[in-house]
Structure formats: structure tokens, C-alpha cells
Amino acid sequence: MRCPNLTAAVFVVSTCLCLSAMAAPNFRSGITSLHSDVTLQENGTLDVREEIVVNDAASFYKRGFKHDLPISPIERWDVRYVGTYKPDNGVRAHILEVTEDGQPARYEKGSGLFPPLFIGVRNAPLDSGEHRFTIHYTVDSALKHGTQFDTLYWNSIGHERNVPIAEAILAIHLPATIPAGNIQVEPRVGGRGGSVPRGPQNTLERVDDPSGAIVYRATNLGPHQSLSMAVTWPSGYIHLPLLSFLPRDAWMYGAPSILFLYYLIAWFRIGPDPKPGTVLTMYEPPQGLSPAAARYIATGVTDGRTFAAVIAQLAVHGCIRVESENGKYKLSRLMSDRATESALAPEEKTILALLFEDGPVFEVSPAKDERTTGQHSRYIWHIHQELTRQLGKKYFTRHTGIVVLGVLLTFSFAMPIAVMARGVDTIGIFMFTIWILFIGLTIGLMTQTILLSSFKAALRSKTGWKQLFPGIGVIAMFGWVIFFMLKKLAAGVSISYAVMLVVLLLVDLAWGPRLKRKSLLGRQAADQIAGFRQFLLKTEQDRLDRIGAPEEADQDLARHLPYAIALEVKEAWGDHLSQEFLGSVIYAEG
Questions:
Q1: pTM for this model (two decimals)
Q2: Does 107 reside within a domain?
Q3: How far is CA 358 from CA 37, 123, 374, 410, in A?
């Protein structure tokens, strides 16, 4: 009667023994020995040499040998010794040497702020034999420097590991200037916090060392268990560098600071813009200035409104006829005499030839596709080229050379830092840096000029918002790519490096427009243009706003229409026409 019970008991005991055997790590395979030798330098940096012996570890390293350096917040988790948890604790390692079985080994870093180290052939399983890996590196910012005590906390193995370790030895060498009697040591074996606590299979003992090093030995460490040590001594024996109180890599901010100082000195040397004079009401536009030229001098831009003013001027002079059809404008070439065409401004002659190079009729369509946008931009670019040739040096002093030198300084500062950066991939860092600076300057200029100019025009006329979307989309797309690359650099190099690149871009983009100055002649012309605009606003705005096309205006009013468009005096026809080119603005300065 007792046999069934005896059989059941034997079965239960056997099952428990099997499960226990299955759960217990096999310390003959995996990491058979891990020896960490940590030397504290008198300047607070650490010199670390790790010797790792693996045997029959193919099942643990199916994609090559991977090792996490114990510097991340996961390894340095104990807030008693390292302070409040931060995703980036500022601790960094610099690899000096890696060997495998006594020979220099190929290695590479993974991704992330604290990337793992891959030694040997990556993504190829480690064979089942015995291998000895040696990793030699330095560590910055691992020492907690206090007013009364200094603390060195070193968790030699880390926790994100599923490989058993038969034997772990941690040796910490302190400078001889620290008296041995003032040193307090707290060793520990176990998992992070209360996880995977020290078990009966774990041993921990201090090992005498003739060199005076503090050495502890632990055995039979299971997955996620580690050997750590916290060493504390009175402050005053370790002297950190003078600027160690700054965040790591804070020296990188010196590059944008120097660039800012360069622009500031240039700004003082250039001097202020000539002060505006008294604005007197002008009943006629300044002599010798076309509508496009008046806008160029008053605002410093060439854009879609400039193009609309040129079309209006050609219509007023009888060179073209403008007809509205279903939201579009049809421009027809008219037979005008040579005297009329010779009286046109250079940019007006250029546009008259370009508009009708393919036939006597040209249709103005909203810039909703790439072809139309490119076509409009081509016309505006030609206008700008003519205006710059005629007026650029006469009415403005733009100091382009200073801005170009500033951009060159930006690259000359960033490139050496990219080469020196302790990141995952030097070539990748270098290429990312060039791309971010080049595209960032381009996108920043587009945002300052095209987007802001178009936004102001749409806000003023309360129309044309749809034409802004393509430009916003392009800028947003490139902006997202820049943000993605900056995030990668922040993770792979440092946050300081990514911030430095952003600040360099902001310094260039902020200072560039502020170096432009009007010449004395340009200041006088701008005051006259302001006086004429004042006249249009006070006496002609209502009549201008009722015009449906240039042909509907009387002779005096028609002469003022192109200037009203150029100077942004409210009038319906020019506002609507200028919106057709809103999405293809070229905002060009010099």
C-alpha cells in the first residue's frame, strides 16, 4: 500500500534535483576568469586593464564576443556612491588596446551612448575553445570628488550579462600619497539593488597584494551578478584639473564662443547702419528707380512680389496685356515701339524677353508643382541678378567676405573636433558633421528668407497659405533629418558635441543678416521710398485696392500701381498676383 506513495516521493525528489541541476550555472563553460585591474591617477582618471578568459562559450556568444564596459548608469547604479541617477552620467572610456590570445585584435563599438565592444569577427559565433581577451582603456569622470571625502565606485562586471563567471578578481590601485589607514572599503557580490542577491554558491574574499592594491576575489557568479567595490578616503589627495567642474566636453563650447566673438568684433568694426533721416511725403517715386529697384532697396529682397511688380510695370507701359481666367493670369505680348522698350529698366527688359521666349502668350499658374515653381524661381533669379548688378554695391555694403570667413571658421572649428571626438565611428562622425553644417546653413537661410518672407506676405494679404505648405514640408523634412543625425551624434559622441554644432549654426545664421548695411546713398534712397509709400498709403490706397487689372486704372494711378505692389501697399490685384509666386520665392541678399 505504501509503494505508490514511495514512488511518488521518489519522483518528486528526482524532479526537484533535475530542475536544480538545470537551474545551476555550469561554471566550466562561459567566463572562467575575469580580472579587472583599476589604477587611479592623481588627476582623477582611471587606467583600466581587463583580462577575460572564456571557455566553451559558443552558446553565449553566437554573434561574436561582446563586452560591455562597466561605465553606464546600469553598471554604476548604486546612488550611495555615484549620486542621483542620470541617463548620461558623464563617464566616458577611451580604448587604448585590445588583444585576443596575446595578439592585437580587431574591435568595433556598437551604437548608443555607452556602446558595447565587439571583439573579433562580428556576427560570427565564437568557437568552443578557450580564448583570452585583454582590454586596456582609460576612464574619465568616474571619481566622485567631495568636499570631505572622495569615493571611487567600480562595478567590475556589469549586470546585462547572461554568462556565468567562475572567478572574478577586482584590484584597485590608489596613489601612494593616500594613507592606508584612511581608506574605507565596501566590497559586494550580487545583482543590481536587491535583484539576484548573493547566494550560498558565491564566495568573496580579500586577497593580499604585495603592491598595496585593494584586491577582492569572488567565485561562482551567476547571470546578472557582479563584483563591485566602493573605496572612500578623505579629500585633498586627488587634485582634479582646473576646469573639471564643467560638464564633460564643455571645452567644445569654446568653438562657438570664438565664432561669436569674431562676428561681434566685425560688427563693431563695421559700425552702425546710417540713421534714417526725416521722412518727407514724396508724390513721385525716386527718380531712376524702378518698382523692383525700390523694393530691393527698401527691403533688401527679391521675391514673388518683385516679380508681380515687374509684370504690372510691363502692363502699364503697354508691353503686355494681363487677363484673369479662372484664378490664372494670361499674359499676352503686345506690339510696343522701341522707345517704350528702351525706357524699361534692365530687369524689366530681361523678364519681357524670358516670358515670351516660347511664344506670344504666357500663362501664370499657381506654383503647385516642381516645374512651375522652378520656372517662377528662374524669373525671380534673373531679376535679382540684374538688381544686384545695378544696385548691390551702390546702395548696400553687405560685407560678404566676413560672412564667408565666418562659415569657413565654422567648418575649421568643427572638423578637427570631429576627428578628435571619442565616438563610435570617426569617419561617420566626420561625414555627419559636414552634412549637418552644410544642410543646416542652407535650411536656416531658407527659413530666414523664403519662409519668413512668404509668411509675412500671406499674413498681410490673408491669402496664399496653401502655397506655404510645400516650403514648410521641405524645411521640416530636412530639419527632421538634421535632428536625427544630431541625436545619433549625442548618443555616439556626446551631448556637448551635438549642442556645439547647433550653436555654431545659430551663430552664423544670427550674425549674417546683421552685418548688412545701407550705404549713405542707400539710406537717402530708402528715406525717399518711405516718403513715396507714405503718399500711396494716405491718398491712393482705396483707389488702388479697387483695381482689377492695370488696364482699368487711369494714367496717373496706373503709374503708381507697380510701386504699390512692390512696396506692399494694400491693393487687391497685385496682392493676388504676388500670391501666385509665393511658393517659389527666391529671397536673395547680395
A1: 0.55
A2: yes
A3: 80, 61, 16, 45
